[in-house]
Amino acid sequence: MFSRLLSRIDQRARIPDGIVLYAIGDIHGCADLLADAFDLIDQDIARTRSGRAIHVFLGDYIDRGPDSRRTLDLLITRARAHESVFVRGNHESILSDVLRRDDLLPDWLRLGGAATLMSYDVLLPRANPEAALLRRSLSKALPRAHSEFLTSLRPSFTCGDFFFVHAGVRPGVPLSHQSEEDLMWIREPFLSSSEDFGKVVVHGHTPVREPDIRDHRINIDVGAYATGRLAVLVIRGHDIDIRCVGRPR
Ligand SMILES: [Mn+2]
Which positions fall inside the Calcineurin-like phosphoesterase domain (predicted)? Predict the structure, then answer.
């Protein structure tokens, strides 16, 4: 396992004393990297003997990468032993919709859904996959714990001065009035905005070469499925660390 301290910055923003928060961005079926991230977190917890540790996962657990099924297994297992918050990504949203209706299958496959089907041993015909048939096969192949996981996801999570979300927020709209669609999908005008959103927005969804840390937002999606790296953001009081597991750069 490789880990490297990329950044330690002090901001005015903080979380309440006694809490250490671990945030993980877009995993996209990279179960091995997720397991490495858990090792890193376990070492950190053992080393610092932290009081209350909260894991926050920023969504896009599935699709594109090789092992969506095992990723969900790891997340569900982790949550049994650790206080965990699971935010909904646009990929989980599409999968939930695909399980209910047939017209979104082409969209899902374009977004890497075929890798998820394969991880559940659902065969995808080479030409003209019939949506209704695939939907039934997938529903049958999906363990109950996984479908419950998909329905349990939340749009966002707030801790102290931080707002955790999959994609971002719409500038000009209070955090309490954001649409779920924006929280899961937005890129612009969020990414270019220099607005003070009221909290530091911690997000993924738009891959960056290195974690992007600014005063008003932090992007920790380093594109795991394409780069072989996964970032873990650690917040303690007003200290922020970012570490990466996986391939060294
Ligand atoms: Mn996304």
Answer: 22-239
The mean pLDDT value for 82-89 works out to 98
User: Is the pLDDT confidence value at 2 over 70?
Assistant: no
Ligand 1 centroid–CA 112 distance in Å is 11
Lowest mean pLDDT among 17-31, 116-130, 179-193: 116-130
Question: From CA 222, how far away is CA 109, in angstroms rounded?
Answer: 22
Quote the CA–CA distance of 151 and 108 in Å, as a whole number: 18
Rounded distance from Cα 99 to ligand 1 centre (Å): 19
CATH classification number, 5-246, choose in 3.30.70.270, 1.10.10.10, 3.60.21.10, 3.40.1650.10: 3.60.21.10
Q: How far is CA 170 from CA 188, 196, 206, 236, in A?
A: 8, 12, 15, 27
Distance of CA 17 from the midpoint of ligand 1 (Å):
31
How far is it, in rounded angstroms, from Cα 221 to Cα 231?
A: 7
Overall size of the chain counted in residues? 249
Q: What residues pair up with 10 in beta bridges, in sequence order?
A: 239
CA of 203 to the centre of ligand 1 (A): 10
* Ligand 1 geometric centre to CA of 191 (Å): 14
